[in-house]
Specification:
mainly beta, two-stranded antiparallel sheet, 1 helix, 7 strands, elongated
């Protein structure tokens, strides 16, 4: 799978106790940082294969951004061409300044 500019969040993602990023939110600036197609390996491929299936060399660690009216989020997840996207998490986020 080649890098794409956008993908979609396939599950709601908790920000804090009262706020969530909704399912189907667009994730922009998507690219692969480890695994299939790049020179960096994924340390948890055995876990991913045991939990979700697929072959271990088919997994990729992906990153992207979600920008809302209030926040900018850096999102990380794992993806396999035969399985799809799993284990979304917010790596960092910051409140956006007013323009």
């Amino acid at each position: 799978m080649s890098d794409v500019d956008t993908t979609y969040l396939n599950t709601p993602l908790k920000i804090n106790t009262h706020e969530w990023i909704p399912q189907n939110t667009v994730i922009n600036n998507v690219h692969t940082i480890a695994g299939k197609g790049v020179n960096e390996s994924i340390r948890v491929t055995n876990k991913l294969t045991e939990m979700y299936g697929g072959v271990s060399d088919g997994w990729m660690k992906r990153v992207g951004k979600i920008v809302s009216g209030k926040y900018e989020f850096d999102i990380h997840w794992y993806e396999h061409v035969d399985i799809g996207c799993v284990d979304f998490k917010i790596k960092t986020y910051k409140e956006r300044g007013w323009l």
